[in-house]
Amino acid sequence: MHVRDTADKWEVVSSTERLRTKLLKVTTEAVRMPDGAVADRDLISHPGSVTVVAVDERGYVLLLRQYRHAVKHLLWELPAGLRDRPGEALVDLAARELAEESGYRADTWHTLLDLFVTPGASDERSRIFLARGITAIPEEEITFVREHEEADMPTIWMPLQEAVEHVLAGMIHNSPTVAGILAAYVASAEGFAGLRPADTPEE
After folding, report:
1. Nearest-5° angle of CA 19, CA 21, CA 25?
2. Neighbours of 5 (CB within 10 A)
3. What is the Rg, in whole angstroms, of the alpha carbon atoms belonging to the chain?
4. Contact of 45 with 123, CB cutoff 8 Å
5. Cα–Cα distance measured from residue 49 to residue 170, given in angstroms and rounded to the nearest whole number
6. pLDDT digits (tens, 9 = 90+) for 78-103
7. Which DSSP symbol is given to 54?
8. Would you call 109 exposed, middle or buried from its count of C-beta atoms within 10 A (0-12, 13-18, 19+)?
9. Does the structure show a pLDDT above 60 at 149?
10. Catalytic residue (choose from 139, 150, 190, 203)
11. Active-site residue flag, 150
12. Contact between 34 and 41 (Cβ < 8 Å)
């Protein structure tokens, strides 16, 4: 059997909106199953996100710590952000988030992974980029202001192998961060050869 995720759409008999916020919409959809039965499925509609695995010339990965109220934890994560500007190229969004959250830029970008973050309940997609050729943005070029949870986000550079060890020890929990760290470590064994271009379309 050919193993590849493929788009498909089962019949939606009815849809009832339960909640709408600035970011999310929650609906209950009655979906016809292959045997003809109809089952309710709750769906959280989400604009999507991008995540950045920034790896420097030493093989260190950039992590930042952010408070996540839904899980009541301070989490060590990769830089990431919402797809909040319609029409913006995903790699441009990733570069913007890297700059705004960490104060760094990168001159080499590749697509590392494409994820459905919580496919049992949400349509959120996250493209995970590998960023290399990392340099600090000069202070005089920084014009953005961090607010709310982003106002106090410590950053560290950690050896990629050590980050893998933290993941496997259960010390890092954010799912795109876990996936990105593990994928980058695997890709590093081949010198990051064979990764998809940064502008590869999502499937």
Report:
1. 50
2. 9
3. 19
4. yes
5. 24
6. 999 999 888 899 999 999 999 999 99
7. E
8. buried
9. no
10. 150
11. yes
12. no
